[in-house]
Specification:
This protein has about 650 residues and is of the alpha+beta class. The strands form four sheets. It has a seven-stranded mixed sheet, sandwiched between helices. Helix 3 runs antiparallel to helix 4 and helix 10 packs parallel to helix 22. The longest helix has about 35 residues. The radius of gyration is 33 Å and the shape is elongated. It starts with 9 loop residues before the first helix and ends with a helix.
Length: about 650
């Protein structure tokens, strides 16, 4: 059965909707007003209850009979009506024994025997518990609307001797589409222009921009980095790369099982037992007690029902989770729901992306090898050439600081797919890849064959002058993250990346990760993780940051996104957000989950223990409803104090 969530907003919905339809102006802060409205029913009931109790205590003359009944009924309705409504819906759906039914019977029973304040108090406690839980999960994952922002929303199609802007969904296969600098490729196709440079991180996670030649494939969702280009579409939009990612996220989210909170499962067993015990307490004594009086035993049964209300559990469990969520937030970790704190404790396999997750996603100079030249002079020749380029690798090279006056390059021409040729200080300079060197009969060092990172080679006056290695830097705490994850009991750590397999393997080896695979598309990552999940008895956590990671984040048991630099889609889809972008927080999230579980179990044991004692006393006629309410309040207070301990705990 799908989990149903009580929402106190129901009472305001009709009037709110009518107001929205008739309102002719904008409010200054509709979001803050909407948030406050959630608390209005509980606040109203609390104020009415306190005033009513005060008037009872001071024996106010007019506060008698029907006035008293109406007063407490008005106090009861804002918090009681949503519960009764949900109970009725559950009954209509064939689910009789829910906590909604138990709360409804018990509190209405309290009114039936004249214990009005107790009826309101019990339901108010329940409403407060729901608000705690609502506050903890209000940002829960369930929407992937952010992914729609990534989807291209227009295509410039050549029709009737002119380029016209249309929706990509109506573009046919074989049509010519123009894409300007900085725009997304709207549909899959082949490049008609001589060449193009594309950011494909959204699709593959590849850290290096991809240079495509005429006739090669281009994919929807890629960003055009260099000049106006033309493509010929080869697929309709519904079959394009970005549409497939969107579909995978939707399907993966649907496939992912939702963990019900303990109280939901518990209520299905606890509620029928309590209801039948109350019925038995009313009628069974007739056969065993000589002076049986129906009204006395009904009164006792109703007290039993009030005592048996699981409001202490309903409050103490969310409070434990709420404490865990607060503690996690203080440590830069956002859990999108209480259930994911539980899931983190069951994780035994951690799968992680590379670019942007354990690396910074920014190109930096890793090594400079100058041959026959001093390094600063060598770099001035290289920088003079790269100054002409807007490529991210060129930008990384231009960050080098060399003393003295900069060199100037002239007659710079680009050799498609290979690099640049030009003149610096009257010398012919070539800057590019190995293919450029070979095509100009320049012998390069054999040691460059084993370099897996991006490499820029330089020749000056026909001689090999050296090379610069450009690489994505590891995050400062990357090594510590792997160490702490292992120390937390995770034995299997895997790296899956869209970047080149050689680079992925090197990073994995450097970090001490045993298994790694590179060159993966989003669907490949998804297949790998789903295979692990099918073979695994525990839980699989996936850590990523890009749009291409969204399907896997949605499908994994626990999806963890890097929130600092990560894409909006990854953050929206994930279950846990590392707000500081530090992978070392992953182990801390596991530890916080385990501490929270201990606190919750302690609260459950406390609530059960006190409840069992008071239930026995109630069945024997030795406890009144006020004692039952007091017992619940006492348990709730102890649970609060226990949960607050989480805020004071320290995790290394």
């Amino acid at each position: 059965m799908k989990k149903k969530k009580l929402n106190l907003r129901d009472l305001n919905k009709t009037s709110s909707d009518t107001h929205k339809r008739n309102d002719g102006h904008n409010h200054s802060s509709p979001e803050s007003i909407g948030k406050f409205k959630i608390y209005v029913p509980a606040i109203f009931s609390f104020v009415m209850l306190i005033i009513g109790i005060a008037m009872d205590y001071f024996d106010v003359a007019f506060f008698k009979d029907w006035i008293r009944i109406v007063w407490y009924a008005v106090a009861y309705l804002p918090v009681g009506f949503p519960v009764i409504k949900e109970g009725w819906k559950s009954i209509k759906n064939g689910d009789f024994f829910t906590e909604f039914l138990l709360m409804s019977i018990a509190t209405i029973g309290a009114f039936a025997i004249g214990e009005y304040p107790e009826g309101v108090a019990v339901m108010l406690f329940y409403a407060v518990g729901e608000l705690f839980q609502s506050a903890a999960v209000k940002k829960a994952k369930g929407s992937i609307k952010a992914l729609l922002d990534v989807r291209p929303n227009e295509a410039l199609v050549y029709r009737n001797n002119n380029y016209v802007s249309v929706n990509p969904e109506i573009v046919q296969i074989g049509e010519k589409v123009q894409v300007r600098v900085g725009e997304k490729i709207p549909l899959d196709g082949v490049l008609l222009s001589e060449k193009g440079s594309f950011n494909t991180a959204a699709l593959t996670g590849e850290s290096k921009p991809d240079t495509i030649a005429k006739g090669e494939k281009v994919f929807a969702g890629s960003i055009n980095l260099d000049g106006v280009i033309e493509i010929e579409t080869t697929k309709e939009f519904k079959d394009s790369s970005i549409a497939r990612i969107l579909d995978m996220v939707q399907n993966a989210t649907a496939r992912k099982s939702k963990t019900e909170l303990f109280i939901r499962k518990f209520a299905r067993i606890y509620t029928p037992i309590v209801v039948f015990l109350a019925i038995g307490l009313t009628f069974i004594p007739y056969f065993f007690v000589d002076d049986y009086v129906f009204s006395d035993w009904l009164y006792r049964a109703l007290i039993f029902l009030v005592i048996s209300c699981p409001c202490a559990l309903v409050i103490s469990i969310p409070l434990g989770y709420f404490g865990g969520l607060g503690a996690a937030s203080k440590n830069g970790i956002l859990f999108k729901g209480a259930s994911y704190l539980d899931e983190m404790t069951k994780v035994n396999t951690v799968v992680m992306d590379k670019t942007g997750t354990v690396t910074k996603g920014v190109f930096k100079i890793k090594e400079i090898k100058a041959i026959g030249w001093k390094e600063p002079e060598f770099m001035k020749y290289l920088m003079a050439m790269e100054e002409q380029s807007t490529h991210p690798i060129a930008k990384a090279i231009m960050e080098y600081k060399a003393d003295g006056e900069d060199f100037q390059a002239t007659k710079v021409t680009e050799i498609a797919g290979k690099g640049l040729k030009g003149t610096v200080n009257g010398k012919t300079v070539l800057v590019g890849n190995k293919a450029l060197m070979i095509s100009n009969n320049i012998e390069v060092l054999s040691e460059t064959d084993s370099i897996v990172e991006s490499i820029v080679m330089v020749s000056i006056e026909g001689k090999f002058a050296g090379y610069v290695i450009i690489a994505d830097e590891l995050k400062d705490d990357a090594h510590e993250a792997i160490k702490q994850i292992r120390e937390s009991g995770i034995s299997k750590i895997i790296m899956l990346s869209g970047d080149k397999d050689s680079i992925t393997q090197q990073v994995a080896k450097e970090m001490g990760i045993d298994t790694a695979k590179g060159g993966l598309l989003p669907e490949d990552k998804l297949n790998e993780v789903e295979k692990l999940m099918s073979e695994n008895d525990g839980r699989v956590a996936f850590i990523g940051d890009g749009i291409n990671d969204a399907p896997v984040l949605a499908a994994s048991d626990v999806g963890i996104a890097m929130g600092g630099l990560g894409s909006d889609v990854a953050i929206e889809t994930a279950d846990v957000i590392i707000q500081t972008d530090q992978p070392s927080k992953i182990a801390k999230a596991i530890k916080i989950g385990r501490s929270t579980r201990r606190i919750v179990y302690q609260n459950i044991a406390l609530a059960f223990g006190v409840k069992a004692v008071v239930l026995v006393l109630g069945a024997g006629g030795l406890a009144t409803m006020w004692e039952a309410v007091f017992a619940d309040v006492g348990v709730a207070l102890l649970a609060i104090l226990n949960a607050v301990r989480l805020q004071k705990m320290k995790w290394k």
